[in-house]
Amino acid sequence: MRALQYVEIGSPPRVVEVETPEPGPGEVRLKVSAAGVCHSDEFVMSLPAEAYTFGLPLTLGHEGAGTVDALGEGVTNVALGDSVAVYGPWGCGRCHACSRGAENSCPYAVELGIAPPGLGAPGAIAEYMIVDDVRHLVPLGDLDPVRNVSLTDAGLTPYHAIRTAMPKLVGGSTAVVIGAGGLGHVAIQILRALTGARVIALDVNDEKLALAKEVGAHEAVLSNDEAPEAIKRLTGGLGAEAVFDFVGAPATGAIAAASVALEGDVQLVGIGGGAVPVGFGVTPYDAAFRAPYWGTRSELIEVFEMARRDQLHVEIETYSLDEAPQAYERLHAGEIRGRAVVLPNG
Ligand code: NAD
Ligand code: ZN
């Protein structure tokens, strides 16, 4: 089969021919319908050799959907031909966190050598992929896999972040979304559907600001040194009850810390190398700072349910497997509108 692999540190990923994998006991093989292109892949491929821990060659793609194509020994509860999405943050399946469906918080995955597809295990940007356990499959039913595959990360991650901030997003409150890209443009829709907050979107790119407005942001503001002042102006001097930073760069972390209200929430979701100093007199009294990771299995089901009710959608650009390297080039250049989705089987 063909797959998009990161083969060599510092070189762009390429389409290669590899052996079609066979599912082992308990495993499921999917014929991939769609796979999303996430900025985290770009982060992974930017790491120097000393910091790179994902194995080579690495088949990319941690947002995957497909049809069940072959069953390993002993697999039940799923049938050939089922249309499914892959829950990506794989855990041990037995600990307290995994029992709650919070495999994103499994403390044992690393020591057991369990890694998400596309981030250690072979990923979804391939004609076929192996999923290690049926519990990592969520039935899609009548949901279009191409339009919805990216909800497995670009939907789930903002949903997980926003849910914990919801008690603060009461009537009359304000939420700031920094970075209206893949995750950010879904975050805006989740905020609009679940809260009464006024949503202020920030980006460095006018087209992304236009997209932010299109998907429901009340205000769109250029992301620069003056952004915190603009946010203060829009909130009567108080700041925002919640700030979600989907860039995570030093500059955006600083904007987040300078824009949050007393008792507000800052969530640093992006992994752009930023960090925010937190302390008494440094950040607003009682403001909470958090760097969340992906989301839980039950939250993924909730996100798909929201898509079914037309409460959110993903803006997509589609690519064939041969074009997948171009999708990464466009992602690097900040040119993707919404999410790039690869269709490995045409
Ligand atoms: P993306 O490339 O689709 O979107 C990033 C957006 O940020 C773009 O619209 C870009 O124009 C904008 N941007 C860049 N610099 C900016 C700045 N200084 N101020 C405001 N906006 C700016 O990326 P994505 O796939 O949505 O991922 C967003 C971030 O979240 C990445 O860092 C990614 O690695 C990270 N991520 C984290 C998790 C997690 O679990 N914590 C999960 C998925 C992705
Ligand atoms: Zn991702």
CATH H level, superfamily name of the largest domain: Medium-chain alcohol dehydrogenases, catalytic domain
Tell me the β content.
Answer: 15-25%
Give the structural class.
Answer: alpha/beta
Per DSSP, the total helix count is 10
| β-strand number | 16
- Proportion of residues in helical segments: 25-40%
Quick rundown:
The protein has 346 residues and is an alpha/beta fold. The chain has helices at 39-46, 96-99, 145-148, 156-165, 182-194, 206-214, 227-234, 250-259, 297-308, 324-332; strands at 2-6, 14-17, 28-37, 58-59, 63-71, 83-86, 128-131, 137-139, 174-178, 198-203, 219-222, 240-245, 260-268, 288-290, 316-320, 339-343. Strands 3, 5, 6, 7, 8, 15 and 16 form a 7-stranded mixed β-sheet that branches. The protein has a 6-stranded parallel β-sheet with strand order 11-10-9-12-13-14, sandwiched between helices.
